[in-house]
Design a protein that fits this description.
The structure is a homodimer of 379-residue chains. Chain A has 379 residues and is α+β, with helices and mostly antiparallel strands. Helix content of chain A is 18%, strand content 44%. Chain A is built from 6 helices and 29 strands.
């Protein structure tokens, strides 16, 4: 194998596939990046067996030669060393040649590296995916849907299925739901499904979605999502991103979401968030980071917390409106801040049904995004 | 105690004195910041008993009222909570009032905190320093002298005196020397000593100098340095920075520095640094991060390294000149990079006296800064 490539492209592709490579793997070949050079260009692959990322660099783009393949072939190179080397090479072009015994020469300017390679034949095959169930999502919407839900997955392995986000497609509507059983995040959107009568119901690991979100640039190009029984594949122009799915039935959450409201509060998100943030300062050390909200006359809500050893804090926030019954409720300051940040709207509506029942946050007049939080019993 | 202060000034002062507060202290009162309000203004103090920092905020500056002291007094408040609270308060002004039982009310806008305070009488006194031995150093020169030497202190406690930097003043010349016995960094400068016939020879802990450097803004205002037997004090307009000195005799290092040279190499610092950096990529895992330099004809020096399990790297660097004997020498890539970065000069001269002897780096024609490195035996 021998090729010459523009270094910038190599850096970008290595950086992307590296995201799937784990330094803690017990499978030696997976510490490497697989490089395949052929007449279509260069393909790099990284994997930790949960996530696999493949990046394709074409021979040319916009009439400009990116990679010049002299001899086809393949090799696996240590991700750790290859990544650092590529980043630090001195010249605009890099020449990579596999010599005897998988020894790989990396040349750029006056700098010459010789890295011990591994046999690409030993690298595991990526899953073959049937493209039966395909839908299309603009990148920025996809990133939104991940960001607004993935923080609410469980970090505990006691119920593994809750460490993932439940993705469902019914009637061209995609819904993403995450819950750790103390709170729930829900985001819905209409999407363009390619397959007729596409229906899916799968649980994608939170970690995979976080990595996917990092790797996607902010733009409105379309990502194709292909779903199978055990794998999901996200496809962009240069990238293939595979993730395994979580096994097990995701709990039915729709009946958890209250449909009525006894107290409704409408408030500026930033003012409310900052008040909760300040109240959390003293509560953080405590068991549950408990913050209390109490409604008063004249559309005032008081946010307070109390830690006997440290002190107490209280702040009155002016709401745009408080409708319904008086309310005293305690909740996790952290969960409240996570939810307020995820909603990404300048104003917010909070619907309470008593101090012991879950409550719901969403942007005024918009139910495509919803955050639910269970209160904390303090009385 | 009661006062109203502009929040920006409070944030700055708390941020500075916090640098001396350690969360790991076993003395509870030292987890706090002492605040004293009197007719001169506000004084904040933080200390971990090795370093103490005092920040003074005057009543007014440039005709503008900064702090309005209603009642004089003092209190100690938890550095951790007070620091975070001050940073997150909503309004431009902050009112602080000590009420019954040291309970301290912190008010800003609609936000009200009540923090449990500690008795300021129990806070340890700062050392009283006789201003016999005083000299003046511009801030930017002081920061330079620290940055160019402090990285070379020992991180091992086996010889505690080597964890500090040896500061000496003789005949209005300040010299700073640090060594971990594998390398040595030296920086000299003429300074303006205030005291007649000032002579000093002290060892200042590396950690103190690093903190001092962080806390000083980049400007050319003068810092006064006051030296006593056990303490050094650095004084700026708003700040007093105290550090204890290290006990024990600092080794005499002048005879370690070779005065002759068998091979002299003159090279562009950046090109040489980057070549060593690349060679270090593969050497890093090894015991000593060993990089080899070999001189060739036509003013070429070859930088290489070899790790049997990973691979090898070699690079030819064009020098501006190589004078004297042929040379093959091995050294720590990390030490070389530290030294090259510390010198902060576009070109560099390296003087070797054989492959087993320490070698010296300095900017061409400038001996106010010098870096010495011991080679590594590899043959």
């Amino acid at each position: 194998m021998q090729f010459i490539i523009q270094r910038e492209y190599l850096i970008q592709s290595v950086q992307d596939v590296m995201k799937a490579v784990s330094s803690r793997t017990t499978i030696p070949i997976l510490t490497g990046i697989k490089i395949v050079a052929n007449k279509e260009g260069l393909t790099l692959t990284g994997s930790d067996s949960d996530i696999s990322i493949q990046y394709h660099i074409p021979i040319e783009e916009n009439g400009q030669i990116i990679v010049d393949v002299k001899t086809e072939g393949s090799i696996v190179l240590s991700a750790k060393y290859f990544g650092e080397i590529v980043r630090k090479l001195p010249a605009e072009h890099v020449e990579i040649t596999v010599e005897d015994h998988l020894m790989t020469k990396i040349k750029s300017g006056s700098s010459v590296f010789n890295l011990n390679g591994l046999d690409a034949e030993e690298y595991p095959q990526l899953p073959q995916i049937e493209e039966d169930q395909v839908c299309r999502i603009p990148t920025d919407l996809l990133k939104f849907m991940i960001r607004q839900t993935v923080f609410a997955v469980s970090t505990s392995e006691t119920r593994p299925v809750l460490t993932g986000v439940n993705w469902k497609v019914i009637n061209n509507e995609l819904s993403c739901i995450a819950t750790d059983s103390h709170r729930l995040a829900l985001r819905k959107a209409r999407i363009d499904s390619v397959s007729a009568n596409m229906e899916m119901n799968a649980v994608i690991p939170g970690k995979s979605l976080t990595e996917l979100s990092k790797i996607l640039d902010d733009n409105d190009e379309v990502v194709e999502m292909v779903m199978t029984d055990y794998q999901v594949l996200f496809k962009t122009k240069h990238l293939l991103f595979f993730s395994r799915l979580l096994e097990g039935n995701y709990p039915e959450t729709s009946r958890l979401i209250p449909t009525e409201s006894k107290t409704t509060l409408k408030v500026n998100t930033k003012a409310f968030l900052q008040a909760v943030d300040r109240a959390s300062l003293l509560a953080r050390e405590g068991r549950n980071n408990v913050v209390k909200a109490t409604t008063h006359d004249n559309n005032i809500v008081e946010i307070s917390s109390h830690s006997p050893e440290i002190g107490k804090v209280s702040e009155k926030v002016q709401c745009d409106g408080i409708i319904g019954e008086e309310l005293k409720i305690s909740f996790s300051g952290k969960y409240m801040m996570d939810a307020l940040k995820a909603i990404e709207s300048s104003d917010i509506e909070i619907h309470f049904t008593g101090s012991m029942r879950p409550f719901v946050l969403h942007p005024p007049g918009d139910d495509s995004v919803l955050q639910l939080i269970l209160p904390v019993r303090t009385y």
